[in-house]
Amino acid sequence: xxxxxxxxxxxxxxxxxxxxxxxxxxxxxxxxxxxxxxxxxxxxxxxxxxxxxxxxxxxxxxxxxxxxxxxxxxxxxxxxxxxxxxxxxxxxxxxxxxxxxxxxxxxxxxxxxxxxxxxxxxxxxxxxxxxxxxxxxxxxxxxxxxxxxxxxxxxxxxxxxxxxxxxxxxxxxxxxxxxxxxxxxxxxxxxxxxxxxxxxxxxxxxxxxxxxxxxxxxxxxxxxxxxxxxxxxxxxxxxxxxxxxxxxxxxxxxxxxxxxxxxxxxxxxxxxxxxxxxxxxxxxxxxxxxxxxxxxxxxxxxxxxxxxxxxxxxxxxxxxxxxxxxxxxxxxxxxxxxxxxxxxxxxxxxxxxxxxxxxxxxxxxxxxxxxxxxxxxxxxxxxxxxxxxxxxxxxxxxxxxxxxxxxxxxxxxxxxxxxxxxxxxxxxxxxxxxxxxxxxxxxxxxxxxxxxxxxxxxxxxxxxxxxxxxxxxxxxxxxxxxxxxxxxxx
Amino acid sequence: xxxxxxxxxxxxxxxxxxxxxxxxxxxxxxxxxxxxxxxxxxxxxxxxxxxxxxxxxxxxxxxxxxxxxxxxxxxxxxxxxxxxxxxxxxxxxxxxxxxxxxxxxxxxxxxxxxxxxxxxxxxxxxxxxxxxxxxxxxxxxxxxxxxxxxxxxxxxxxxxxxxxxxxxxxxxxxxxxxxxxxxxxxxxxxxxxxxxxxxxxxxxxxxxxxxxxxxxxxxxxxxxxxxxxxxxxxxxxxxxxxxxxxxxxxxxxxxxxxxxxxxxxxxxxxxxxxxxxxxxxxxxxxxxxxxxxxxxxxxxxxxxxxxxxxxxxxxxxxxxxxxxxxxxxxxxxxxxxxxxxxxxxxxxxxxxxxxxxxxxxxxxxxxxxxxxxxxxxxxxxxxxxxxxxxxxxxxxxxxxxxxxxxxxxxxxxxxxxxxxxxxxxxxxxxxxxxxxxxxxxxxxxxxxxxxxxxxxxxxxxxxxxxxxxxxxxxxx
Lengths: 490, 476
Ligand SMILES: [Zn+2]
Fold this sequence. Notes:
The structure holds 2 protein chains of 2 kinds. Chain A has helices at 3-12, 27-36, 41-53, 111-118, 161-168, 185-191, 225-233, 278-293, 309-324, 343-354, 357-370, 376-399, 422-426, 433-438, 466-480, 482-488; strands at 60-63, 81-84, 123-127, 174-179, 194-197, 217-222, 264-267, 297-300, 402-406, 442-450, 453-460.
């Protein structure tokens, strides 16, 4: 077995029982092991540095050369972190997987990366992603596609595909990514791990290269729910550098629930019907059965406008992106085309050479949607749809505590399968975009396998209900016991 | 057929750089001619991942301006992104206010205020090459020190009807902003910039004609000349049967020529949309109260008080009110005079003699003349203790060396000649100038000047011209 296959097996296969192998442990277990003195931060770092160096998935774009010498007494005990290339990190390449920022080394570090390092999670490497977070398969990276460790012919999902593949592949203990319309939850689902998109505003966006500012939110990608809670606990918090940041009203607690007695789950028919493939549906229905076994109730709740979510999202996100990406003009940093003509040709050639096709497509979409004469019909209307969707969720949460639905309508698809059809690719996010538009928190946890590939179950709650979501997710995770299912797959 | 008379319709758009400690959206100190690109940070350079944070002081200044201009403050105003590509704009958009400005619907003097909003300034481009313009430049450098400086844009309604009143109103606005202390309002240095919207319509018509926008004139004189030139240009086109095109124009101060910067077709589509990186500005009652309390007596009110309560001529009242520092000196002198000096006489001496002696633009508070000294001097003139011409001599000494006017008068013997002494001198002069006396008697009134002159020479200016004439006439 290759080292990479071995690492993947260490995550999802039966445990060897060797406590000195860091890769067999969840991050929370590593923190405990450091506390108990059975593992040191240096040992953990050294094992993961070797694993990351052996990356066969193209998950990493950059790896740290030296052990930063983390403090064993810090809350996260030196458990190293994979960081999506979208986060700016001082002196370290931060390109958002784009040619236009190739080699760009920012003079400052994103708030959330700084906070996690201070809490004892030093950066192990920067992970691959869809260029500027635009994509659902990681195939839009300027630096090559990422392989799904479950089947290397398949995509890991996107845009945080590198972070998800690194965690699932056992070459990172945990990772952070960003979610604009599903970019944490969908790759987590396709890679069989946990991904959480927090309430918009709870985590600072300062230092995240912006895609769609009103939607972008950083969150954890981890092996299990407890790790997600532990990492998120050190990510949240208001930031004077981000005036849209609110922090979280209380501390993120480590979840403990074993039962779901009295918890009301709502199933929106709009997010569980057409387009959800049978294998995914079967796993989802099994999860509903588990919820009821654990004492939870399951009822149908409508989200009548969610059918328009994808249309609204693909107006609003590109509109914001068209402005956010205007700064890449070849004047100050990043790539500059060798244009010898006037200013306009410098702009045109730099952007022509620097941006990939999907980024160009979205800049054009967004520019069009904001143009005089079209603004009301597109941007204005999409904003009204967004408001309706938020109202749908608010009404639903009057009746239920959590919404439950699949994370992705399909399991991981084949590399190249959807690249020629942008619309089919956009529909990969059909079940995650509504929560993004509403700004509410949602988690994806592995629910089981379909055709040997992971299926994600999504739980969404009202704004700032992260603790409620994490508790329910933990109870469900225990009941599902995905690791046993994966190990039994053979 | 009588020729149609055209009425110009003028509105102004003014950009004011605020004198805050830091920039609009980041912590960089404002720049006053430092080395290029030394007042920058990741935020004002528009580096990837950075976010703006609104400067609270800029909001307070904006609220003060809105209140001072009698505007309604928006209970909730928001920022927009104004998108266009240019090297002086590091993010590819300017953060500005669009459909919900900080304040609107005010008035200053006779002119209504349409809106007051906050935004950020662009960086400065320096073009190497003979022309100094981007098109033929060999290279262009960008100095980001200015980029992100807080700006307030003030837009008037089109209530002005000629170039001179436009300039006069702008002076009132500048005085008001200076009095608020929110900006240096220096046109040459660009902390006050003015564009003018100009259109013509047949006199008596209520409908507005097609307007042109005259960009960035950097002195009051150029504003007046530029508007006049544009009025003449439009009138020429209309009288020739032509139509005015809506366009943005540049007034060349050297040649006086007006050239087109861009036509309506070439106008940018700025693709405004709400800035998602910022939260709305929602002024609390305390913020508004604090802004209101910070507003001192404004020039327009002060001018009205000077004219109404002190009986000053309107021109002097405005001069004293618009030049805050001169008005302050005047009021200090009036207080020092404690009722012994008359307000209008003191205003005359302040506006005419003192300012002339100090030189244009000087702040009297920075001179050697104290308010008490000026009051003392004017008091001596009013009490007829010294003549006007002697008083001017004393003022010159005060400007040069400072001191107490009474002491200067005593030391230099400038005290007014008493009536007995003066009568004797007059009689001597009339005897010496018998020719002139004859001419005056024959009806040549001007000939009296020779006699007066002789008296003045004799008394070395200690006599009052009017009194000398009276004494001569009594003896004719
Ligand atoms: Zn700055």
